Amino acid sequence: MRPATPAPFSSVWADLRQVAFTQGFLDADGVRTRYLSAGSPDKPLLLLLHGIGGHAEAYSRTLGPHAEHFWTVAIDAIGHGWTDKPAIGYELPDYTAHVLAVLKALGRDHAHISGESIGGWIASHLAVHHPEVVDRLVLNTAAGWTAHPEVMERITRLSTEAADNPTIERIRTRLEFLMYDKSLVSDDLVETRRAIYAQPGFPETMRRTLSLQDMTTRRRNMLSEADYRSIRAPTLVVWTSHDPTATPEEGRQIASMIPGAEFIVMNKCGHWPQFEDPARFNEEHIRFLTQGA
Questions:
Q1: Using CA atoms, how far apart are residues 47 and 80, in angstroms rounded to an integer?
Q2: pTM for this one?
Q3: CB-based contact 116:62 (threshold 8 Å)
Q4: Which of 73, 141, 176, 219 is at a distance of 20 to 30 A from 245, taking alpha carbons?
Q5: Would you give the distance in Å from CA 64 to the centre of its chain?
Q6: Which domains, and CATH codes, for the chain?
């Protein structure tokens, strides 16, 4: 008898199996910053920003398809992943300063910026306060406009539980919060995040990075209607049918305030559409980013 065909093994590194990519660290004004990169530096730079508690692997299914068109760089944000974790406030100006330092370290003074969740909030903040650095802007289930106490409490609880005791079960529960299809949370993805959360001192860092889940702190960092209306970068707002943090209508409100913004909703996706439906996300993302190239 022929042996049974083994079940496919889902892995963030399998996503990169046929991708020429590099993993490394750069010095962003003294912050040792981890990155994943694909594509040639002679192409336009696309900088990818993940969400709270996340890391660059959120874009493992994005790097390859975009490398043909862009120098595509996904970073671990300050206080996240394998990047340095200084004892700072982790408010929007802190994240923005880090991204500006990353651009400087990459030798660029502008880029396409695409951010998911808090990464979208950072990208928005850059477009408002540093418009000269943003060529095209993608806001993917982006934070920064709404403040739902029940969502903020859930993110805080799941994140602190996972950081305080990074068991496989708690890490899986935190990742399943992001997904419409929970089966996409593979063992490999769980272990990738578990290793990050098991770093010495990570529980204290997690509490610092959750500062934006405190209502007072969040409100002083939120974007106003005037802020969104001031954005001049061509913008695509991506939302999903099952985002656990905000409804598609809230995403539509953001798009309606940004002059000329496009708005799309991806069905059967949660908070990581770039990971859950990479075929459609990559198609729409590349279409938008290459307009007028």
A1: 16
A2: 0.96
A3: no
A4: 73
A5: 17
A6: 14-289 (3.40.50.1820)
